[in-house]
Every structure is written in C-alpha cells, then in structure tokens.
Specification:
Elements: E1 8-12, H1 17-28, E2 32-37, H2 40-51, E3 57-61, H3 67-81, E4 86-89, E5 95-96, H4 104-114, H5 116-130, E6 135-140, H6 153-172, E7 178-185, E8 197-198, H7 203-216, H8 221-233, E9 238-241, H9 243-254, H10 259-269
C-alpha cells in the first residue's frame, strides 16, 4: 500500500475537473498538496477547499508546456513542503476536427501539453520521487489511449503516447521504490470537451459533437477521483475509470481492428 497521510502530492490541472476532485480526495486522506494550473482563480478555489481538510496546500500557476516554468517548479515545491511523494500528471486539453482540418500549430499545441507536459513534469520530479521510501507517479491517459476515434487524431496520439511512456518507464523503475500508475478515464463530466479547440467544424458539426459528448461524459469527477486515489493507494499499474472504460477496453481486446464499428453501433443506440 502507498501511504498518503503525511505525504505530499503535486497535481497539475488542479483548478477544475478531475484535478480539483483529486485535490479534495487526497486532502481528505491527509496528504499535503502542491496544486498547479494556469487558471489562477480556479486554483485558489481548489486550494481553499483542500485547506478545509487541515492539510498544507501551496498554489503554483503553471503552464506545463513551458519548459523553464516546469524546471523551476520542484524548487518552489520543496521550499513549501520539503519533499514530494506523489506526482499526478493530470493537465490536458482537447482538440476537435479531422486530421486534414487541424492546423499543424493546433496539433503541436495539444501534443506539447498532453504528452510533453507529462514528460517535462516527470523529468523534473522523478529525482525527488526517487528519494522517497515509497512514491507513486500517476499519469492520466484516457480511454482514447486505448481506442482511437475519428476526429481525435491529436488527442488519441497524445494519450497513446502517455500510455506507452508510462508503461516503458514502469518497466525501467521495476524493483525501485517508485511505482507508475497509468489512468484511463472514460466519460467524466468535466469541461474539457466544452473548452476544446475546434478546427474547421461547421455549426452543425459542433452541435452534433456536443450532443455526443453530453451522452458520453456522465461520471462525476469526485467518483473518478475516488477510484484513482484507491489505485494510488494500492499502487495499481493501470486504472480504468468508469464502466464505459471497462467495456470499451474489453471490446478493443476482443476486436482490435473492428472495435470502432461496434462502438459506433452502440453510440447510435444511445
């Protein structure tokens, strides 16, 4: 088991959604927090809620796509907390549109945050995690790191990359005191889809996508956070969040080439 009470967790993307819910749940477990996000107002709100649990909380305005800012963060966290035992790479963005509609700039923007941010944060904090008698690195992939739908080439590429990076690093760290957990959430009710960039989509296409997401994004972020934290405590190597993620993963394993045709059929029924 991974002891959380008395530990220190760094969470990116902590101002809202799963990140803010993770802050609440970890604070309830007695874990001190270093919360990082670009959204200063949301960060203040998340930090205030977590402090209500009686734990030490620091706020760090951070763009995970900025190498210099990420490189400077460990010293700032050490100055506040003295150590780090858990790193949760949760920050992420979305981008709608088929590959030919998406500009190179938008594609690179998403990759730099969703995958590059995970790599930068891991490189910055792994030396601190390695000092601990027990530490856990937690990387948020997605169910779209298991299946790859049309219209999500950049997002799926980033989440498959997070999965591959996490699994390879876990094998490299095998036998050490630092574990690696890769998380694949299904449809969690956050603002990531509403805040997504949309490349070249008509109003009708945008509305159709919104209707699909409204059907898909159902799980409460708090429920997702509780499942993820249980996975951290148990030092699970892979965490599937939501029944939809479990079902989609099963279909992909049974039909590794034809899964999308089957999933489309069930989505039409929904």
């Amino acid at each position: 088991m991974m002891p959380l009470r008395g530990g220190v967790a760094v969470i990116t993307g902590a101002a809202s959604g799963i990140g803010a819910a993770l802050a609440d749940v970890l604070a309830g477990r007695g874990c001190a927090l270093a919360l990082a996000d670009l959204d200063a107002a949301g960060l203040r709100d998340a930090a205030a809620r977590a402090r209500g649990a009686g734990v030490a909380v620091s706020e760090h305005r951070l763009d995970v796509a900025d190498p210099e800012a990420v490189a400077a963060l460990p010293d700032a966290v050490l100055a506040e907390h003295g150590r780090v035992s858990v790193l949760v790479n949760n920050a992420g963005v979305a981008l709608g549109g088929r590959f030919e509609q998406v500009s190179p700039e938008d594609f690179d923007w998403l990759i730099s945050i969703n995958f590059g941010g995970v790599v930068r944060m891991t490189r910055a904090f792994l030396p601190l995690l390695r000092r601990e008698p027990a530490a856990q690195l937690v990387n948020l992939s997605s169910v779209f790191g298991i299946v790859a739908p049309p219209g999500q080439t950049a997002y799926a590429a980033s989440k498959f990359a997070v999965r591959g990076f996490s699994e390879a690093l876990r094998h490299e760290l095998d036998g050490s005191t630092t574990g690696v957990t890769v998380v694949h959430p299904g449809g969690v009710r956050t603002a990531i889809a509403a805040n997504a960039r949309r490349a070249g989509l008509s109003n009708a296409e945008t509305e159709a996508q919104a209707n699909v997401w409204a059907t898909f994004l159902r799980l409460d972020p708090r429920d997702a956070a509780e499942r993820i934290v249980r996975g951290i405590e148990r030092r699970e190597k892979r965490v599937l969040v939501g029944r939809d993620a479990q079902r989609i993963t099963l279909i992909q394993r049974m039909f590794p080439v034809e899964y999308w045709r089957l999933l489309q059929r069930s989505m039409r029924k929904a």
